Amino acid sequence: MTEWRTAAEVLSAKAALMDSMPGWTTPTAYALGVAVGGDEIDWRVTNYRNEHELPGVVLGKILGYRSGSRSYTLDLRTLDEAIEALAPAGACDAFEHPNLWAWQRLRGEISAGAVAEDVKIVVVFVGSSSDDIPDGRVATLRHHLGLD
């Protein structure tokens, strides 16, 4: 596996991913969580104000997201794919990697049986705080971040 050891390598990888995604618009916020009932979500990691953009680009690439406010449900294979795609950034100590760590921790909890294997893993993107709210998950994240 290729590792991105420097900030320049991480930023270059992010730019290359973004360039490979026509129509990509950086969302205002995005998050990964576990649906625990109804619209209640245990947010494992949230990203707001364009902090930690690379994980959002990785998720966008894998899920087909390009812009706007949307939510997705991930299966374990897709979570594994996201972890693998983001893992090279973990070699760079110029940045913290809360998304990678949270995703890996969740995967470990599932593997250990601490979280059910059939849990609903959700990813939510908020394009902007003025977007229409397409579903309850987007509304839940906007409320969680104070964007409503």
In a few lines, what is going on in this structure?
The chain has 148 residues and is of the alpha+beta class. It has helices at residues 7-19, 53-63, 76-86, 98-112, 136-144; strands at 29-37, 40-48, 70-74, 120-126.
What's the alpha carbon Rg, rounded to whole Å? 15 Å
What is the strand arrangement across the widest sheet?
2-1-4-3
Described by strand count, sense and barrel closure, the largest sheet is: 4 strands, antiparallel
CATH class: Alpha Beta
SSE series: HEEHEHHEH
Strand fraction band?
Answer: 15-25%
Number of domains: 1
Indicate the CATH architecture.
2-Layer Sandwich
Separation of termini?
41 Å
- What would you call the structural class? alpha+beta
Annotated CATH topology = Alpha-Beta Plaits
The overall strand count is 4
| Uncertain regions spanning at least 5 consecutive residues | none
3D shape: globular
- Percent helix among the residues? 25-40%
What does this structure look like?
This protein has 5 helices and 4 strands. A hairpin with a 2-residue loop joins strand 1 and strand 2 (about 40-50). It has helices at about 5-20, 55-65, 75-85, 100-110, 135-145, and strands at about 30-35, 40-50, 70-75, 120-125. The termini are far apart. The chain is globular and about 40 Å long. A 4-stranded antiparallel beta sheet has the order 2-1-4-3, sandwiched between helices. With about 150 residues, the chain is α+β, with helices and mostly antiparallel strands. It has one domain (about 5-145): 2-Layer Sandwich (Alpha-Beta Plaits), CATH 3.30.70.2010.
